[in-house]
Amino acid sequence: MYVSVKGGEAAIRRAHRLLADRRRGSRDVAEIGSDQIAEQLTLAVDRVMNEGSLHDRALAALAIKQARGDLVEAAFLVRAYRTTLPRFGASRPIDTAEMVVERRISATYKDLPGGQILGPTFDYTHRLIDFGLEEASETPGPEAADALPVTPGSTPRVTELLAREGLVEVEPRGEDGEVGDLTRSPLRIPAKRDVRLQQLARGDEGFLLALGYSTQRGFGSTHPFAGEIRIGRVEVEFDVAELGFAVPLGEITVSECQMINQFSGSAKVAPTFTRGYGLAFGQAERKVMAMALVDRALRTEELGGEVIAPAQDQEFVLAHADNVQATGFVEHLKLPHYVDFQAELALVRAMRAEHAARAEADAADVVEDHFEEAAE
Amino acid sequence: MPTDIAPGFVDPVHESQTTFRAVLDALAEPGTIRPIAGVATAPAPLAPTAAAVVATLCDFETTVWRDEALATPAVDAWVAFHTGAPRVADPREAGFAIVAAGETAPGWETFRLGADIDPSTSTTVVLQVAGFGEGRRYRLSGPGIETTREIAILGAPADLAARGAENRALFPRGIDLILASPTAVVGLPRTTRIEEIA
Amino acid sequence: MNAPTPTPATGYAFAYLDEQTKRMIRRAILKAVAIPGHQVPFASRDMPMPYGWGTGGIQVTAAILGRSDVLKVIDQGADDTTNAVSIRAFFQKTASVAVTTKTAEATVIQTRHRIPEKPLTAGQTLVFQVPIPEPLRFLEPRETETRVMHALADYGLMHVKLYEDVAKHGRIAKTYAYPVEVEGRYMMDPSPIPKFDNPKLHMSPALQLFGAGREKRIYALPPFTAVKSLDFEDHPFERTKFEAPCALCGATDAYLDEVVTDDRGGRMFVCSDTDHCEERRAAGHRGAMLADTAGNEENVR
After folding, report:
1. Which residue of C has its CA nearest to A317?
2. Domain ranges in chain A?
3. Domain locations in chain B?
4. A77-92, pLDDT tens digit by residue?
5. Nearest residue on chain C to B22, judged by CA atoms?
6. What is the DSSP secondary structure assignment for residue C86, as one 8-state letter?
7. Considering only alpha carbons, which residue of chain C is nearest residue B57?
8. How confident is the model over A309-353, as pLDDT tens digits?
9. Is C185 in Cβ contact with B117 (below 8 Å)?
10. With an 8 Å Cβ cutoff, is C18 touching chain A?
11. What tens digit of pLDDT does each residue of C102-151 get?
12. Cβ <8 Å between C67 and B14
């Protein structure tokens, strides 16, 4: 008996209700609040803000709750919300030299003005599960020395120290101060560096990590040094045309990585170090380091190198970095495709039938030949 | 709103939607006459229909050029206020051009014609005409037309057919034309063959 | 200024998109109509549905839809597939638009993978959801290269590929997303419709719009546009034929889905276009299996 397959609104409604039930989990356990996510799963919130391309901690936390902790799904929720927001313009460039630093390390100098500041890092933890966290306990606050903010401006950027000697390339300033925005004009290849950095900042952390890693294993080596990684608060300002001056919008936490890479120079240019740059919302150290590696790799062509590795290939990297796009297209394979499959099925059956007929004809020929030979 | 700028659409969402559909149908089926309500309050010599097309399609992401006849402070202020579109002095930089009348229309080749690799960047020219159903008669053919379609246009450039032929020869480059009479629009995209009926 | 007026039902703008986004999409649609078959880049937005699930079609529909429109949404030809239901519900919610399952009643039809069997008429608009708009993509993965090929109308790569098919398989081994040539100029991907539907593209009285959200491209076929499926003189384009009629309505001229009825090789063929099939049955047409069917029972949990 044939029963037609009907999706229908009822099926969708029931699926949504089941989803909400599974999200809530056992009713014996207190429901998690998005404030708890915002305060205690801060790095997840940071990642969702970055890949969701929107700085809003409360919204990102709520998205994580709604997405049952699936961070790509949460970024997707934030992105779709972002689409509906009016756009007033672009902020002034943030000045990370004026950052209220919480963490600042350099791998290229043992000591430097402002010092190395470890800050809240996993780096020197032993990765041993802390069973003490199973129970709520009093967590002591930071030590007195860490409770005071670092004076803004007391930690000059490492690249500026090198630049004074002419040892690192000078960043060319944007021609007209206009920055591209690939959410408002479609990506064109070749893309300028501002647009590339935007795509990397929105890009999937795992994808960037793998690409950055590939450059370290010889697929487009950039000889990187972690010149500086800094994390802290910066002020965001917005130029209001009617007022004629910039208005502070508030402070955000960002992570910045400046990679310093070897460059042998050319006939025209003396040898200098070159830069790879990474910047992201919140504490996103892995993301900005990987981003800086990939940024530098993507500059291969403009620095006179030959594009041979995946991480150097603009079209490959930029077209596949967005996990909201990637997850949608990979997962769309679960949508019905039976019309196309039917068309392929018919073709394969027809070709198999022809194949069988040919094989039969060949076999008959062999038998015929055999009899002919026997007759001779 | 400053008191010296005339109002635009009363219901922007739905008026721009109906205007857009009329323009879409006009360009999809060249030579068909598509009535639109227009913006009655548009400052002369900007025609209410042309004003509606501009308000529907232009914003801060498009550039607008207008000819000398439309270069009045009231028109410039109206377009700037209701669209936010930057005005350009060079027609080669225009995403949209507004032309007051066929008799004084500049040659199509003075506008942005697009590139073979990206022909969609060419100028859309909104040309004000006196009316449809009277004036010079043309036979049209091409995509959007099953066989041929006839249309009469009052106030089109005298050499409309020759301009069309030159524009068509550039394909896929070329401008697209939206004719705006006092009550309706007609589309003549770059694909349309225009033959004048003697 | 053109501030969006939210519909009270949802708090979102009419048809979800803000007015600036609609203008941007509308401009792209107009240029697409003016250059039939050419893929116009547009700044596709992140939509509340996943990429690959119709975000391009949804944006095109949202940009054209008005209060007097009647919307039909199909996936695989059917109005009742889950994704079609979901997209239809989206527009009911955000645009309070009238919906229908009847092809003849719709002014706008959004589709994935099919063109309705009932011939479309003047004034109707068919919006295709497109996953990969570039017909040359699987022959040349780089956009920088394929853009130049379109600019030069250099389609040798495709002709070589189709010729290799003929040499290897004795036929052009393409059954869906079968490439077409528009007005003798642009090569175009008709979206993954079965090639059975390709002839319906040619000189259709309806406006056909194609939206690819993830790939950020819009293209169009105005009504009465010449659309030729690629072929060779000695291997002309052939429409897929079915050996059996629809088991429900007896149609012999419709695209059929194969339905496996048991695990012993039993199968039947039924119309993929559910509206077409229902209309035929309402008119008294009966297929071989109809007496045996329990009708439209729900089989998706």
Report:
1. C142
2. 8-82, 96-120+146-330
3. 12-197
4. 999 999 988 888 889 9
5. C64
6. H
7. C23
8. 999 999 999 999 999 999 999 999 999 898 999 999 889 998 899
9. no
10. yes
11. 999 999 999 999 999 999 999 999 999 999 999 999 999 999 999 999 99
12. yes
Contacts of B among chains (3+ CB pairs under 8 A): C
- Cβ–Cβ of C299/A5 closer than 8 Å? yes
Q: Would you name the residues of C annotated as active-site residues?
A: 37, 246, 249, 271, 277
Condensed to tens digits (0 to 9), the pLDDT of residues A266-275 reads 777 788 899 9
Under an 8 A CB cutoff, do C183 and B16 touch? no
Structure confidence at residue C293 (pLDDT): 46
Mapped to the 3 state alphabet, what secondary structure does chain A carry? CCCCCCCHHHHHHHHHHHHHHHHHCCCCCCCCCHHHHHHHCHHHHHHHHHHHCCCCHHHHHHHHHHCCCCHHHHHHHHHHHHHCCCCCCCCCCCCHHHCEEEEEECCCCCCCCCCCECCCCCCCCCCCCCHHHHCCCCCCCCCHHHHCCCCCCCCCCHHHHHHHCCCECCCCCCCCCCCCCCCCCCCCCCCCHHHHHHHHHHCCHHHHHHHHHHHHCCCCCCCEEEEEEEEEEEEEEEEECCCCEEEEEEEEEEEEEEEEECCCCCCCCCCCEEEEEEEEECCCHHHHHHHHHHHHHHCCCCCCCCCCCHHHCHHHHHHHCCHHHHHHHHHHHHCCCHHHHHHHHHHHHHHHHHHHHHHHHHHHHHHHHHHHHHHC
Rounded CA-CA distance A263/A273 in Å is 5
Instruction: Kindly state the tokens that stand for A226.
Output: 């972690």
C32 and B120: CB-CB below 8 Å?
Answer: yes
Give C154-163 pLDDT, tens digit per residue: 999 999 999 9
From the list C64, C203, C225, which residue is nearest B21 (CB)? C64
Mean residue pLDDT of chain A comes to: 90
Task: Give the rounded distance of the alpha carbon of B154 from its chain centre.
Answer: 15
Instruction: Tell me the chain C residues in contact with residue B120 when contact means C-beta distances shorter than 8 Å.
Output: 28, 31-32, 35, 38, 40-41
pTM of the model: 0.90
CATH code of the region B12-197: 3.40.50.11310
Q: How confident is the model at residue C7 (pLDDT cuts 50, 70, 90)?
A: very low
Contacts of A340 in chain C (CB under 8 A): 113, 175-177, 192, 194
